Amino acid sequence: MGTTASQLGKDLLSEYQELTFLTKQEILLAHKRFTELLSKEDKALPNPRVPMNSVLTLPELKSNPFRKRICYVFSTSDTKDGSLTFEDFLDLLSAFSDSATLEIKSHYAFRIFDFDDDGTLDGGDLEKLVNCLTGETDDTRLTPEEMRQLINNILEESDIDKDGTVNLSEFQHVISRSPDFVSSFKIVL
User: Which residues lie below 8 Å from residue 124, measured CB to CB, with a gap of 6+?
Assistant: First the structure.
């Protein structure tokens, strides 16, 4: 049995369309995929949450090196466990959709890369970012000297006010000069 507009409710579907960058069809598909991740017991709850481990089984996230950070950033859970409600899931898909603006995409990318959630990208955040991208095996890990040099280069290029960190506006400035960022920052169900 497929997902229908009546399962979500026409008014709710319209509201989701207004509040996201998603089409009606994308919202219905998202609802179907979200519901498939729920346990039988959770489907009966009024506002169920999908545990992060279940969200991470989605093929669209499985190979993303930032998959856990993505869940943490979009989760509204009080326990900070990375679990997602349907609305959290829609927010995630909306930010990663083709229709989302550069400003929205860069804002969420910044939050995903801000591993310590302090509002800046410092050396520790940049090291974790690089390790996520290169992998943390002995074959791919950078030497401490290579890592230090790379972080210094990133800060030299991005840290406009020279305070040793990259803030959101500095990050957005760098991203604005990356023509492929918008097209590569996406998840399509």
Answer: 115, 116
Confidence of residue 179 (pLDDT cuts 50, 70, 90): confident
Dist CA 56 CA 23 (whole Å) = 23
Query: Does pLDDT of 57 surpass 90?
Result: yes
Pairwise CA distance, residues 150 & 128, whole Å? 12
What's the pLDDT band for 2 if we cut at 50, 70, 90?
very low
Contact partners, residue 82, CB within 8 Å, separation at least 6: 51, 52, 55, 68, 71, 72, 75
Q: Output the CA–CA distances (angstroms, integers) from residue 107 to 46, 111, 120, 125, 176, in the order listed.
A: 30, 6, 12, 16, 12
Task: Give start and end residues of each alpha helix (H) in the chain.
Answer: 5-8, 10-19, 24-37, 40-43, 52-55, 59-62, 67-74, 86-95, 102-113, 123-134, 144-158, 168-176, 181-184
Report the number of secondary-structure helices (H) and strands (E) in the chain: 13, 0
What integer pLDDT is reported at residue 78 of this predicted model?
Answer: 95
Paired residues of 166 in beta bridges: 121
Whether the full predicted model's pTM is greater than 0.70, yes or no, is yes
Has residue 183 got a pLDDT over 90? no
CA pair distance 174, 158, nearest whole angstrom? 6
d(CA 173, CA 35): 38
